[in-house]
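Figure S7 source data.
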Amino acid sequence: MVANNTSTLIAVRDVDSLRRRVKAWRREGKSVALVPTMGALHKGHLTLMDRAQKMADCVVASLFVNPKQFAPSEDFAAYPRQENADFELLNSAGVHLLFAPDVNVMYPAGFSTNIQITGIGGILDGAHRPGHFDGVSTVVAKLLLQTLPDIALFGEKDYQQLVLIRRLVADLNIPVDIIGVPTVREADGLALSSRNAYLTPEERAKAPALYATLCAAAKSIAEGGDIAAVAAAAKAALLESGFRQVDYVEARNADTLAPLTSGKEPGRVLAAAFMGRARLIDNVPLSPQK
Ligand code: PAF
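C-alpha coordinates for the predicted pantoate complex:
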Protein backbone atom coordinates (compact mmCIF):
# COMPACT_ATOMS: atom_id res chain seq x y z
CA MET A 1 0.00 0.00 0.00
CA VAL A 2 1.62 3.29 -1.01
CA ALA A 3 0.49 6.56 0.53
CA ASN A 4 1.68 9.51 -1.58
CA ASN A 5 1.77 13.25 -0.82
CA THR A 6 -1.81 13.77 -1.90
CA SER A 7 -3.22 10.95 0.27
CA THR A 8 -5.50 11.97 3.08
CA LEU A 9 -6.49 8.37 3.78
CA ILE A 10 -4.66 6.82 6.73
CA ALA A 11 -4.06 3.08 6.74
CA VAL A 12 -3.62 1.09 9.93
CA ARG A 13 -2.99 -2.61 10.35
CA ASP A 14 -3.49 -3.21 14.07
CA VAL A 15 -6.45 -2.92 16.42
CA ASP A 16 -4.82 -0.47 18.87
CA SER A 17 -4.15 2.09 16.10
CA LEU A 18 -7.72 1.67 14.81
CA ARG A 19 -9.14 2.22 18.30
CA ARG A 20 -6.92 5.26 18.99
CA ARG A 21 -8.21 7.00 15.83
CA VAL A 22 -11.83 6.16 16.55
CA LYS A 23 -11.48 7.34 20.16
CA ALA A 24 -9.99 10.65 18.98
CA TRP A 25 -13.01 11.19 16.70
CA ARG A 26 -15.35 10.33 19.56
CA ARG A 27 -13.65 12.93 21.79
CA GLU A 28 -14.43 15.49 19.04
CA GLY A 29 -18.07 14.37 19.11
CA LYS A 30 -17.93 12.80 15.64
CA SER A 31 -20.02 9.87 14.46
CA VAL A 32 -18.37 6.88 12.81
CA ALA A 33 -19.39 4.53 9.98
CA LEU A 34 -17.74 1.19 9.15
CA VAL A 35 -17.80 -0.38 5.68
CA PRO A 36 -16.33 -3.91 5.83
CA THR A 37 -14.88 -5.19 2.52
CA MET A 38 -12.65 -7.91 1.16
CA GLY A 39 -11.07 -5.44 -1.28
CA ALA A 40 -11.09 -5.71 -5.10
CA LEU A 41 -13.26 -2.64 -4.83
CA HIS A 42 -15.80 -1.68 -7.50
CA LYS A 43 -18.59 0.84 -7.92
CA GLY A 44 -20.79 -1.14 -5.55
CA HIS A 45 -18.30 -0.63 -2.72
CA LEU A 46 -17.90 3.04 -3.61
CA THR A 47 -21.66 3.45 -3.33
CA LEU A 48 -21.41 2.05 0.20
CA MET A 49 -18.60 4.53 1.00
CA ASP A 50 -20.63 7.39 -0.43
CA ARG A 51 -23.68 6.46 1.61
CA ALA A 52 -21.49 6.10 4.73
CA GLN A 53 -20.13 9.61 4.23
CA LYS A 54 -23.65 11.00 3.98
CA MET A 55 -24.66 9.27 7.21
CA ALA A 56 -21.61 9.77 9.46
CA ASP A 57 -18.79 12.27 10.07
CA CYS A 58 -15.97 9.75 9.72
CA VAL A 59 -15.75 6.62 7.56
CA VAL A 60 -13.63 3.56 8.26
CA ALA A 61 -13.27 0.95 5.50
CA SER A 62 -11.86 -2.43 6.38
CA LEU A 63 -10.05 -4.63 3.89
CA PHE A 64 -9.54 -8.24 4.90
CA VAL A 65 -9.89 -11.32 2.72
CA ASN A 66 -11.26 -13.51 5.46
CA PRO A 67 -9.98 -17.08 5.14
CA LYS A 68 -12.64 -18.39 7.54
CA GLN A 69 -15.47 -17.73 5.10
CA PHE A 70 -13.93 -19.80 2.28
CA ALA A 71 -14.15 -23.61 2.27
CA PRO A 72 -10.89 -25.41 1.38
CA SER A 73 -12.30 -26.10 -2.13
CA GLU A 74 -13.22 -22.44 -2.72
CA ASP A 75 -11.44 -19.45 -4.27
CA PHE A 76 -9.56 -17.96 -1.29
CA ALA A 77 -6.17 -18.13 -3.05
CA ALA A 78 -7.57 -16.84 -6.35
CA TYR A 79 -9.76 -14.11 -4.83
CA PRO A 80 -8.72 -10.84 -6.54
CA ARG A 81 -6.27 -8.78 -4.47
CA GLN A 82 -5.33 -5.21 -5.47
CA GLU A 83 -4.45 -3.37 -2.28
CA ASN A 84 -2.70 -0.40 -3.89
CA ALA A 85 -5.57 0.25 -6.30
CA ASP A 86 -8.05 -0.14 -3.43
CA PHE A 87 -6.11 2.37 -1.35
CA GLU A 88 -6.24 4.91 -4.20
CA LEU A 89 -9.97 4.35 -4.73
CA LEU A 90 -10.73 4.83 -1.03
CA ASN A 91 -8.50 7.89 -0.88
CA SER A 92 -10.28 9.46 -3.88
CA ALA A 93 -13.62 8.58 -2.31
CA GLY A 94 -12.67 10.62 0.79
CA VAL A 95 -12.67 7.68 3.21
CA HIS A 96 -10.86 8.66 6.41
CA LEU A 97 -9.33 5.44 7.67
CA LEU A 98 -8.46 2.06 6.16
CA PHE A 99 -8.14 -0.88 8.52
CA ALA A 100 -6.23 -3.60 6.67
CA PRO A 101 -5.17 -6.22 9.22
CA ASP A 102 -2.99 -9.23 8.48
CA VAL A 103 -4.43 -12.64 9.14
CA ASN A 104 -2.43 -13.03 12.39
CA VAL A 105 -3.95 -9.78 13.70
CA MET A 106 -7.47 -11.11 13.14
CA TYR A 107 -6.74 -14.71 14.06
CA PRO A 108 -3.66 -14.86 16.30
CA ALA A 109 -2.29 -18.23 17.44
CA GLY A 110 -4.79 -19.83 19.79
CA PHE A 111 -7.85 -18.15 18.27
CA SER A 112 -10.72 -20.54 19.03
CA THR A 113 -14.04 -18.72 18.73
CA ASN A 114 -16.61 -19.55 16.08
CA ILE A 115 -19.93 -17.70 15.85
CA GLN A 116 -22.59 -19.91 14.36
CA ILE A 117 -26.03 -18.47 13.62
CA THR A 118 -28.44 -21.36 13.47
CA GLY A 119 -31.37 -21.20 11.04
CA ILE A 120 -30.40 -18.34 8.74
CA GLY A 121 -26.76 -19.50 8.61
CA GLY A 122 -27.63 -22.99 7.34
CA ILE A 123 -30.06 -22.30 4.48
CA LEU A 124 -29.59 -21.11 0.87
CA ASP A 125 -25.91 -20.16 0.54
CA GLY A 126 -25.26 -21.67 3.97
CA ALA A 127 -26.48 -25.07 2.73
CA HIS A 128 -24.24 -24.90 -0.34
CA ARG A 129 -21.20 -23.36 1.38
CA PRO A 130 -20.95 -25.14 4.75
CA GLY A 131 -19.14 -22.97 7.31
CA HIS A 132 -19.29 -19.85 5.12
CA PHE A 133 -21.62 -17.89 7.35
CA ASP A 134 -19.76 -18.95 10.53
CA GLY A 135 -16.73 -17.26 8.97
CA VAL A 136 -18.74 -14.17 8.02
CA SER A 137 -20.41 -13.89 11.46
CA THR A 138 -17.12 -14.33 13.31
CA VAL A 139 -15.20 -11.76 11.28
CA VAL A 140 -18.04 -9.21 11.20
CA ALA A 141 -18.51 -9.48 14.98
CA LYS A 142 -14.78 -8.86 15.39
CA LEU A 143 -14.73 -5.90 13.00
CA LEU A 144 -17.74 -4.32 14.74
CA LEU A 145 -16.23 -4.80 18.21
CA GLN A 146 -12.80 -3.61 17.10
CA THR A 147 -14.21 -0.43 15.55
CA LEU A 148 -17.37 0.16 17.61
CA PRO A 149 -18.95 2.33 14.88
CA ASP A 150 -22.37 3.99 15.09
CA ILE A 151 -23.41 2.41 11.80
CA ALA A 152 -22.09 -0.33 9.52
CA LEU A 153 -23.08 -0.64 5.87
CA PHE A 154 -23.53 -3.80 3.79
CA GLY A 155 -24.75 -4.34 0.23
CA GLU A 156 -28.09 -6.00 -0.50
CA LYS A 157 -26.30 -8.02 -3.19
CA ASP A 158 -25.33 -10.38 -0.33
CA TYR A 159 -28.88 -10.31 0.98
CA GLN A 160 -28.60 -13.39 3.19
CA GLN A 161 -25.42 -11.97 4.72
CA LEU A 162 -27.30 -8.74 5.50
CA VAL A 163 -30.17 -10.59 7.23
CA LEU A 164 -27.64 -12.72 9.13
CA ILE A 165 -25.68 -9.68 10.34
CA ARG A 166 -28.89 -8.01 11.55
CA ARG A 167 -29.56 -11.20 13.56
CA LEU A 168 -25.97 -11.24 14.87
CA VAL A 169 -26.05 -7.68 16.24
CA ALA A 170 -29.51 -8.17 17.73
CA ASP A 171 -28.56 -11.46 19.40
CA LEU A 172 -25.24 -10.20 20.78
CA ASN A 173 -26.50 -6.68 21.63
CA ILE A 174 -23.75 -5.09 19.54
CA PRO A 175 -24.59 -1.37 19.66
CA VAL A 176 -24.54 -0.55 15.94
CA ASP A 177 -27.15 0.23 13.30
CA ILE A 178 -26.88 -2.02 10.26
CA ILE A 179 -27.65 -0.24 6.99
CA GLY A 180 -28.49 -2.23 3.84
CA VAL A 181 -27.64 -0.53 0.54
CA PRO A 182 -29.33 -1.50 -2.77
CA THR A 183 -27.31 -3.49 -5.30
CA VAL A 184 -25.38 -1.57 -7.94
CA ARG A 185 -25.75 -3.05 -11.44
CA GLU A 186 -24.14 -2.78 -14.85
CA ALA A 187 -26.36 -1.24 -17.56
CA ASP A 188 -27.44 -4.77 -18.62
CA GLY A 189 -28.50 -5.70 -15.08
CA LEU A 190 -25.52 -7.78 -13.94
CA ALA A 191 -24.90 -7.09 -10.25
CA LEU A 192 -21.40 -5.74 -9.59
CA SER A 193 -19.22 -8.32 -7.87
CA SER A 194 -15.50 -8.86 -7.44
CA ARG A 195 -16.09 -12.37 -8.77
CA ASN A 196 -17.30 -11.01 -12.15
CA ALA A 197 -13.55 -10.81 -12.90
CA TYR A 198 -13.63 -14.60 -13.37
CA LEU A 199 -16.05 -14.36 -16.35
CA THR A 200 -14.75 -14.82 -19.91
CA PRO A 201 -16.24 -12.36 -22.47
CA GLU A 202 -18.71 -15.05 -23.62
CA GLU A 203 -19.77 -15.82 -20.07
CA ARG A 204 -20.03 -12.11 -19.25
CA ALA A 205 -22.45 -11.73 -22.18
CA LYS A 206 -24.71 -14.49 -20.77
CA ALA A 207 -24.48 -13.52 -17.07
CA PRO A 208 -27.22 -10.80 -17.07
CA ALA A 209 -29.76 -13.63 -17.54
CA LEU A 210 -29.51 -14.13 -13.76
CA TYR A 211 -31.02 -10.73 -12.96
CA ALA A 212 -33.56 -10.95 -15.83
CA THR A 213 -34.72 -14.38 -14.65
CA LEU A 214 -35.05 -13.23 -11.03
CA CYS A 215 -37.06 -10.15 -12.06
CA ALA A 216 -39.42 -12.30 -14.16
CA ALA A 217 -39.85 -14.78 -11.28
CA ALA A 218 -40.52 -12.00 -8.75
CA LYS A 219 -43.15 -10.48 -11.03
CA SER A 220 -44.91 -13.85 -11.54
CA ILE A 221 -45.02 -14.53 -7.79
CA ALA A 222 -46.24 -11.00 -6.98
CA GLU A 223 -49.00 -11.54 -9.56
CA GLY A 224 -50.11 -14.70 -7.75
CA GLY A 225 -48.11 -17.39 -9.57
CA ASP A 226 -47.47 -20.69 -7.79
CA ILE A 227 -44.23 -20.11 -5.84
CA ALA A 228 -42.69 -23.58 -6.29
CA ALA A 229 -43.59 -23.72 -10.00
CA VAL A 230 -42.18 -20.25 -10.66
CA ALA A 231 -38.93 -21.13 -8.86
CA ALA A 232 -38.60 -24.39 -10.84
CA ALA A 233 -39.22 -22.55 -14.12
CA ALA A 234 -36.60 -19.93 -13.19
CA LYS A 235 -34.06 -22.67 -12.48
CA ALA A 236 -34.73 -24.23 -15.90
CA ALA A 237 -34.46 -20.81 -17.56
CA LEU A 238 -31.01 -20.23 -15.99
CA LEU A 239 -29.73 -23.59 -17.24
CA GLU A 240 -31.14 -22.75 -20.66
CA SER A 241 -29.32 -19.38 -20.59
CA GLY A 242 -25.89 -20.99 -20.12
CA PHE A 243 -25.50 -21.33 -16.36
CA ARG A 244 -23.84 -24.72 -15.86
CA GLN A 245 -25.19 -25.37 -12.36
CA VAL A 246 -27.95 -23.71 -10.35
CA ASP A 247 -27.47 -24.07 -6.57
CA TYR A 248 -30.89 -22.58 -5.80
CA VAL A 249 -33.64 -20.22 -6.87
CA GLU A 250 -35.92 -19.53 -3.92
CA ALA A 251 -38.57 -17.08 -2.81
CA ARG A 252 -38.20 -16.14 0.84
CA ASN A 253 -39.61 -13.72 3.38
CA ALA A 254 -37.53 -10.56 3.08
CA ASP A 255 -37.06 -10.14 6.84
CA THR A 256 -36.62 -13.70 8.12
CA LEU A 257 -35.69 -15.67 4.98
CA ALA A 258 -38.37 -18.24 5.92
CA PRO A 259 -39.97 -19.85 2.85
CA LEU A 260 -42.46 -17.47 1.28
CA THR A 261 -46.06 -18.57 1.64
CA SER A 262 -47.74 -15.92 -0.50
CA GLY A 263 -46.86 -13.25 -3.05
CA LYS A 264 -48.45 -10.71 -0.71
CA GLU A 265 -45.73 -11.05 1.97
CA PRO A 266 -42.65 -8.82 1.79
CA GLY A 267 -40.54 -11.19 -0.26
CA ARG A 268 -37.23 -11.61 -1.97
CA VAL A 269 -36.27 -14.01 -4.75
CA LEU A 270 -32.69 -15.22 -4.35
CA ALA A 271 -30.45 -17.35 -6.54
CA ALA A 272 -26.94 -18.74 -6.83
CA ALA A 273 -25.64 -20.25 -10.06
CA PHE A 274 -22.34 -21.02 -11.75
CA MET A 275 -21.40 -19.30 -14.98
CA GLY A 276 -18.15 -21.03 -15.91
CA ARG A 277 -16.02 -20.95 -12.75
CA ALA A 278 -17.78 -17.89 -11.31
CA ARG A 279 -20.43 -18.61 -8.71
CA LEU A 280 -22.80 -15.67 -9.05
CA ILE A 281 -25.45 -14.72 -6.51
CA ASP A 282 -28.20 -12.18 -6.87
CA ASN A 283 -31.63 -11.32 -5.45
CA VAL A 284 -34.54 -9.00 -6.12
CA PRO A 285 -37.51 -7.77 -4.09
CA LEU A 286 -40.91 -9.22 -4.93
CA SER A 287 -42.36 -5.88 -5.83
CA PRO A 288 -40.39 -2.89 -7.05
CA GLN A 289 -38.85 -0.93 -4.17
CA LYS A 290 -40.22 2.49 -3.45
O1 PAF B 1 -19.33 -9.01 1.89
C1 PAF B 1 -18.11 -9.13 2.09
O2 PAF B 1 -17.27 -8.61 1.35
C2 PAF B 1 -17.63 -9.98 3.26
O3 PAF B 1 -18.44 -11.08 3.45
C3 PAF B 1 -17.46 -9.19 4.55
C4 PAF B 1 -18.80 -8.64 5.06
C5 PAF B 1 -16.48 -8.05 4.35
C6 PAF B 1 -16.90 -10.10 5.67
O4 PAF B 1 -15.66 -10.64 5.31
